[in-house]
Design brief:
Strand 9 and strand 10 form a beta hairpin. The chain has about 675 residues and is an alpha+beta fold. It has 19 helices and 30 strands. The longest helix is centred in the N-terminal third of the chain and has 17 residues. The strands form eight sheets. The chain has a five-stranded mixed sheet with strand order 8-9-10-11-30. The protein has three domains: about 120 residues, 2-Layer Sandwich (Potassium Channel Kv1.1, Chain A); about 90 residues, Serine Threonine Protein Phosphatase 5, Tetratricopeptide repeat, CATH 1.25.40.420; about 350 residues, 6 Propeller (Neuraminidase), CATH 2.120.10.80. Helix 5 crosses helix 6, helix 6 packs antiparallel against helix 7 and helix 8 runs antiparallel to helix 9. It holds the Pfam family Kelch_1. InterPro entries: BACK, BTB/POZ_dom, Gal_Oxase/kelch_b-propeller, Kelch-typ_b-propeller, Kelch_1, SKP1/BTB/POZ_sf.
Length: about 675
């Protein structure tokens, strides 16, 4: 006869649940088997030592051997009876009913009794509560009091909706330390200093006796230089609390003195900025192999560096991701963007137009004249109230008996009628290199090298053409010019130079001649001097460079520098919001209200730049193929580039080899 193996029989989980319920029923019915009594405000709560010692507070009482263990009675001086009973019940059942009215009382008990799971249950409930301008202050205080992870989320909501929250009564319960932290938070630039001043006065007057002595510290934390002279004299100085404290009076006088001496001027409502658009982002950069991943490089950000305030903000993103766009800004308030991925062999080119005032993106197509085929755009320039394109194409019958390649200046027609050729520049070939810029919003300057039907390698064979948009006049000012990759306006002259080279050429418009400056006019920046693929732009006083590619690691850089064209010195700027290379840049003057936000503005995380803008654009793609690029549901993500078929890992300013040209 076979004897079966020994086997455990029964239902362990079912038995444990029955035992748990049995003990809980004894506690509820105050059975004689309960051997400990908790007293709170004259109310008794019966329990079992064997159950409640599962939490550290009661375990320590039991182990101490004091009167509580001997008498079986524990007198509590913290908490409310309903919260004590709920906490003890939680030790029996592991569940608790939480609502907005009792969550603070339960947290108090969880913290006092050191019941970790009860505290976690309360926090899980608070995560389910919808944050509003009415409850975010109390949730911040509650989370701060009990060190809950939810605090960061609640405080970010408060900071992101601060103007509305400051109108609630709950904001008056903030501590002095919390108010100071808000006033000194640089990311809260979207809140005006005048609104902050009103809030400080209201907060102090809410409990004047105990808060009055805090007013000086709070008031002196305000940046009065961001207020107009009129507001300071008619409102700030007239506040009784300001008049009462000497520190406050001195703070006001200091700002007024700066106005009197010209260090501060009344705000004209505009900010000179540098816009940085598109490029390749760092977080999608895969070592030196990024050219093998054509769908994971481009970004669609438009970053804005405010020159006077020396800080970054952001504009509404590009309509789609662009690896190497071209941008230009019209002083009337329009930003034009062209994606160079679609710049070759076409008779129609899409241009995106951003109207700053109403935050709207539209698009139109530049229609190339029928006489031009295989066209490509090298640059777009807003000048004299019109948009121009420096472009090249194949023209039929330009010379007697032959067809040839020409570079031209084309005036774009935004109504999509055929654009007008304003200026024939020169004959060109596949090796021709071109740089161009605008001068005083009236002239378009074009510098080229290796022009003609066959490339000429000598740099003194460069061509410099000036097209005056006011009188439609073409001027050949090539005598004395020399090719270098950087050309930009400085005062009433055009500079042509190369970084680190000990010679610079200048063209004087008043004298209409080129002359040489034998000095290292543009030295390499002090950090990452060998960078390539960086963005550069000049505003007439200084030259700015941003990002680029590290020559050794091949990774994008996030550093930016300003080079003073007068003092010949580099100044390091605040680091870019992200590492970028191949971005486009231009100088712009934007309304102050449109660039008031900090780059890490908490408000913009709830109402993103994308959601604030209107996108009414047409894309140069089939709609079905482009759905993934027009999905704006992922606010923080960069989307893949549509093209990377022309990647070469070389210095873009190195001349092409003539052998290469001859072999094509």
């Amino acid at each position: 006869m076979d004897i079966p193996f020994t086997r455990s029989m029964g239902n362990k989980n079912s038995h444990a649940l029955k035992l748990q319920q049995h003990l809980y029923d004894q506690m509820v019915s105050e059975s004689e088997f309960c051997d400990v009594t908790l007293l709170i405000d004259g109310i008794e709560v019966k329990a079992h030592w064997c159950v409640i010692v599962s939490c550290p507070y009661f375990q320590s009482l039991y182990d101490s051997g004091l009167t509580e263990k001997i008498s079986g009675k524990i007198v509590l001086h913290v908490g409310k009876p309903h919260a004590v009973r709920a906490a003890i019940s939680f030790l029996y059942q592991g569940t608790v009913e939480v609502n907005y009215e009792n969550v603070q009382d339960l947290l108090e008990m969880a913290e006092y009794f050191q019941i970790t799971d009860l505290k976690r249950s309360c926090q899980e409930y608070l995560y389910s509560v919808e944050l509003t301008t009415e409850n975010c202050v109390q949730l911040c205080l509650l989370c701060s009091l009990y060190d809950l992870e939810l605090y960061t989320r609640a405080f970010d909501f408060l900071r992101g909706h601060l103007p509305e929250v400051m109108k609630t009564n709950d904001i008056m319960t903030l501590t002095h330390e919390s108010v100071i932290s808000l006033l000194k938070d640089e990311t809260l630039r979207y809140v005006s200093q005048e609104d902050f001043f009103d809030f400080v006065v209201k907060w102090v007057n809410n409990e004047l006796e105990c808060r009055e002595n805090n007013f000086s510290e709070l008031f002196c934390a305000l940046d009065l230089s961001r207020l107009s002279k009129q507001v300071i004299e008619t409102k700030i100085e007239e506040e009784p609390l300001v008049k009462k404290f000497e520190e406050c009076i001195l703070h006001v006088l200091n700002v007024k003195m700066k106005h009197m001496t010209g260090l501060l001027s009344d705000d004209n409502g505009e900010r000179e900025c540098i816009l940085l658009a598109g490029g390749c982002g760092h977080h999608m950069y895969l070592n030196n192999l990024f050219h093998l991943f054509p769908d994971s490089i481009s970004v669609n950000n438009i970053y804005c560096y405010i020159i006077k305030e020396e800080r970054w903000t952001e504009l509404a993103p590009l309509p789609h991701q662009m690896r190497k766009p071209i941008v230009t800004f019209d002083p009337s308030g329009y930003l034009y963007v062209f994606d160079t991925s679609h710049s070759h062999d076409s008779s129609m080119f899409y241009v995106y137009k951003f109207q700053v005032m109403n935050q709207s993106w539209t698009s139109f197509r530049i229609k190339v004249p029928e006489s031009c085929t295989n066209a490509s755009i090298q640059n777009i320039i807003a000048c004299g109230g019109h948009l121009y394109a420096v472009m090249s194409g194949h023209f039929v019958g330009r010379a007697p008996g032959m067809d040839n390649w020409q570079s031209i200046i084309l005036q774009a027609k935004e109504d999509e009628t055929e654009s007008e050729i304003k200026c024939y520049l020169f004959a060109r070939n596949i090796s021709t290199q071109i740089v161009s810029c605008a001068m005083n919003n009236s002239k378009i300057c074009v510098l080229a090298w290796k022009i003609g039907f066959r490339a000429k390698k000598k740099k003194n064979s460069a061509k410099f053409i000036v097209y005056d948009t006011t009188d439609n006049k073409r001027m050949d000012e090539s005598k004395g010019v020399s090719w270098e990759p950087y050309m930009f306006p400085f005062e009433d002259e055009i500079m042509v130079c190369k970084m680190g080279k000990f010679q610079t050429r200048k063209f004087s418009f008043s004298k209409r001649l080129w002359y040489s400056v034998k000095e290292q006019f543009l030295p390499h920046p002090p950090q990452d001097g060998g960078r390539t693929d960086f963005s550069f732009v000049a505003n007439g006083e200084d030259l700015y460079i941003f990002g680029g590619k590290d020559p050794e690691t091949k990774k994008p850089l996030d550093t930016g520098y300003k080079f003073s064209l007068k003092s010949k010195a580099w100044t390091k700027l605040e680091n870019m919001p992200q590492a970028l290379m191949l971005s486009a840049s231009c100088v712009a003057k934007l309304p102050a209200d449109h660039v008031k936000c900090h780059i890490s503005c908490p408000h913009c995380s709830f109402e993103t730049r994308k959601s604030q803008a209107i996108y009414n654009v047409e894309y140069p793609y089939d709609e079905d193929d482009y759905d993934e690029y027009t999905d704006y549901s992922y606010d923080d993500d960069d989307f893949p580039s549509d093209n990377w078929d022309d990647y070469h890992d070389y210095d873009p300013y190195d001349p092409y080899d003539d052998m290469w040209f001859q072999g094509i």
